[in-house]
Structure formats: structure tokens, C-alpha cells
Amino acid sequence: MSKIKPPAWCEHAIPTQRGWEDPNSGEVYKSGGFSQSQINEFYGKTEAPQMLTEAPANNVALEKMTKVQLESLGRQHGVELDRRKNKKSLVATMKGLLNE
Asked: In this predicted structure, what is the pLDDT of residue 76?
């Protein structure tokens, strides 16, 4: 993407999702919104890296997870696990789900 620049006749304007605005009054000088990534680029901000929510690479890590962690992993895959069951059965359920 190319860096956006305010119009020459209102150099103090800031980009918003509504267009170029006055930073003090909020008046829209020139309509035509910008994406959040364009606005971040204008201010020199970089996007924070997103956390991956994938299953562990090997099933060995499942045995080391707590019941709460197994329940959370199950939810990420659309399965609601019952923590009242023992950990061994939860691990077996997750192994079956991840191997499909």
C-alpha cells in the first residue's frame, strides 16, 4: 500500500474511517473512509502479531495440558468437553478430534 497524504489545502487533517477530519472539531473535510490498516500506516504503527490458535503439533502435549486447557482447545475446534470427566477421556476425545 502507498502511504496516504492529506489534501494540500488541509494539511493538518487526520485520516479516519469517515474520511479526512479536523483533529479538533471532528469536521469531515473530505469524505471517503480509510481502512484501519491505512490509518495505522499514516501514524507509523505496525500491526501486532496475531496469536495462533492451532492444535499442538504432536499429541504428546495433550497429556501435559490441564483440563481447562483441553476444554479451551476443544472449543476452538467446535467441541464442548465436559470437565467432569477424567483427564484421560478428555485427552482421548481430543486425539480423536485432531486425527480426523
From this structure: 86
